[in-house]
Amino acid sequence: MRTTILFALAIAACTRGDAPPPPPQPVPPTVDESPGPVGSKDLAGLAGIAAQLHDESHQRPAVKVKVEALFDALAANGITLTTTRQVLAATAAADYCALGVTAESVAVAVCEYKTLDAARAGKKLLETRYAKLVPDAVRALNGTTLLTVANGTSHREVRDRVLDTFATL
Predict the structure, then answer these.
(1) Cβ count near 36 (within 10 Å)
(2) CA–CA separation, 46 and 53 (whole Å)
(3) Predicted structure pTM score
(4) Is 98 strand, coil or helix?
């Protein structure tokens, strides 16, 4: 009888039974294949910047000290700006802004405003919003034009000449 039971167990162990089916494979997430603007979707808000810069450059307010007048005066006083370009005025709540940078990496940002109150508000905004980002920034108003000189701590002579030139215009 022992032999019969062992034989029955051996045969039962050798027979094929239905194995449980494997678990279903997870469905891969779908990828949005639709073409969109080049670049990250996080940058989609930047798509209108070129148009905004264009509008700002064509709707400049009448101001006592224009950006170009300051940049020309700096050149006449021996301060060479190696690069100059228009920058987005909205970041300073301004109507028009431009940035120049010297060979010493001193940044000269100039913003034009329609009113003195707007210029004062823009100055206050920059002093509070960007205080940690640009802790050595020095700002000055001349009429409705706001000057910001940044990265001038290690080049005080250049910074002071920029500020003096701006004050004389």
Answers:
(1) 8
(2) 11
(3) 0.73
(4) strand
